[in-house]
Amino acid sequence: MSAPLDPPVLEKTAPGSWLTPRTAFTALLLAVLALVPIYAILTGDTFAMTLFTRVLILALGAVSLNLIMGYGGMVSFGHAAYLGIGGYAVGILAKEGIASGFVQWPVAVVASALYALAVGALSLRTRGVYFIMITLAFAQMIYYVAIGLDRYGGDDGLTIYKRSQFGGLLDLQNKAVFYYLCFVLLLGGVYLVARLVNSRFGLVIRGARSNDRRMQAIGFPTFRYRLVCFVIAGALCGLAGALLANHTNFISPALMHWTRSGDLIVMVVLGGLGSLFGPLIGAAAFLVLEEGLSRLTEYPALILGPLLLLVAIYVNGGIEGLLEGRRDG
Amino acid sequence: MLYFIEQCLNGVQLGMLLFLLAAGLTLVFGIMDLVNLAHGSLYMLGAYFAATLAAVTGSFVVAVILAVAGSLVVGMVLEVVAIRRLYSRSHLDHVLGTFGLLLFFNELVRLVWGPAGMTLPLPPQMLTAVQIIPGVYYPLYRLVIIVAALAVAAFLYALVMRTRLGMLIRAGASNREMAGALGVNIKLLYTLVFGLGAALAGFAGVMQAPILTVQIGMGENILILAFVVIIIGGIGSIRGAFVAAVIVGLIDTLGRAFLPDMLRHMLSTNAAQTLAPALSSMSIYVLMAAILVFRPEGLFPAASR
User: How far is the C-alpha of A57 from the C-alpha of A49, rounded, in Å?
Assistant: First the structure.
């Protein structure tokens, strides 16, 4: 490596300089997240555990959105639909007396994947703003389907009386066990995305984001690659939905309201688009900020809203970008 | 048959309302290339302004005029303070920023007006029904909405196609730099266009306020419908927005009114009752998805894009 000739961007990743503010912050965040249950058990502060379980689950959803949005350039404004499908898979099966997680969770993942396949097959023919809007339209359809499910609570939602059963293997009623399961699944999700985006498959996806026509000209059937990527993201988010249903013991169409999809986009962009841990940082920042502000004031969004606006106007690459001191896009 | 005519009018009325919202949205989207999720907030603010002003002044008409003026001012201030800085950013940043604004406005309304909703009572002379054809009575106020929206549509058409300001707007839309180089004050123009869009959204909120409750988040679901309208109509096209708004309004209303009966012929009553509301809510999204797949630019693609 001829260091003096390298452009400045590469110096950051050069050996010896891996300890940037960004990696330090990520490591610190992961350490804190790993210690939350211990803190909660020692102090009896179960609220912290509830909050951070939510952070982990929605971070998994954001990680899956980041895969298509950050790396693939596919801005899905209907990602909450998968949270809903995963959640409803658990809720409906539980209501019908099938409490086994070995059935519920695969159904949640497969149902989300199939839905993503249908949505992706149609949506990926469009580009830009039209893609944003068509994914939104499909999510709205699912939202109204859920409202129409009278047997499963309709508009009011459905209480899940029993968390998914995993035989004697895992007891999800135990909050610490559930927390660590979410933590492991989140790390697994990040690992999956890391392996994907650095593989040949991921390079095609990233190539198609910057210049789809050129990728096709080289001979890659980019539509198929993008569709597979879309389906993987949907399946991963369906898993997050199954976790969310187990976490809140309740599902309702509100889970899929378009503002929930907006929340997921906010988390990804806030944390750092197209970075591995950005969605986690974004989810943690968004939810902790929301919670912290609502303790400080009765009107948290009066501060949170303008803050998001400021990030949108002045910050490139979200919080990760800030930590790197990035100034230009 | 009479019921059908009544439902058609209801559909047109919903369509007119959607047009008022979508016209502003499509102007801002088409000319400034801005995805504005806070457009529904301006609709909500218009309704709150009107409900408050009607209570203070005691006059419905004065309240409507002042509320629309208020929305215009809020829109222009918002553009100068915040929106202006978003134009150069990506669509994703628009989503983030205007989503923040949406949260902000919902909270602001809760702070100022409290969490409970408000109502805007109609003046008594508006409460009557008119006989439009023998045997069919229709609420006067809903006719007023239709006529008012048609007037706005005609005004917009004249403004954009027949005035100097409209010419500048079209010039700014087709080539911002060139128009700026020729001495057009693009910044001021954009502020005016955004203010106009805000006033239209506020007007839609005002007109809808007597029919629905004025409440927090009232703009969120109808905003999505307005987005559907501008996508179907073609982004940036006011004519497209008008046609698409009527189509969406009719499909949504007629679906709700007649789908349950139609399904009853094919399915059991029970299944029909469950399916129909979901299907009729979905129908416009199915239409939009179909149009995007087969005609990605919408029904009336604006010439400039």
Answer: 12
Q: Could you tell me which of A203, A132, A202, A290 has the C-alpha nearest to residue B93?
A: A132
Show the tokens assigned to B147. 């006529």
Residues in Cβ contact with A293 at an 8 Å cutoff, skipping those fewer than 6 apart: A300, A303, A304
Q: Decide if B248 is inside a domain.
A: yes
Could you state, in chain order, the average pLDDT of each consecutive group of 10 residues for chain B (305 residues)? 87 94 89 90 96 92 95 97 92 92 95 91 84 83 92 92 89 84 89 95 93 89 90 87 94 86 76 74 85 82 57
Whole-angstrom distance, CA of residue A181 vs CA of residue B234: 47
**Quick check: A119 and A78 in contact, CB under 8 A?**
yes
Query: What one-character DSSP code corresponds to residue B214?
Result: B
| ipTM score assigned to the predicted complex | 0.89
Share of chain B above pLDDT 90, in %: 48
Backbone angles phi, psi at B131, to 5 degrees: -85, 110
- Provide the token pair at A191: 């690992």
Confidence of residue A329 (pLDDT cuts 50, 70, 90): very low
Domain membership of residue B71 as a residue range? 9-119+139-294
The CATH number of the domain holding residue A203 is: 1.10.3470
pTM of the entire predicted model: 0.89
- Alpha-carbon span A139 to A238, nearest angstrom: 13
Judging contacts by C-beta atoms under 8 Å, the chain A residues touching residue B235 are 129
List the structure tokens of A172: 């999800």
Mutate to test the interface with A, among B34, B221, B285 (most CBs of A within 10 A): B285
pLDDT of residue A16: 52
Tokens of A293: 């502000």
Q: How many independent structural domains does chain B possess?
A: 1
A204 touches chain B (CB under 8 A): no
- pLDDT score of A162: 86
In a domain, A189, yes or no: yes
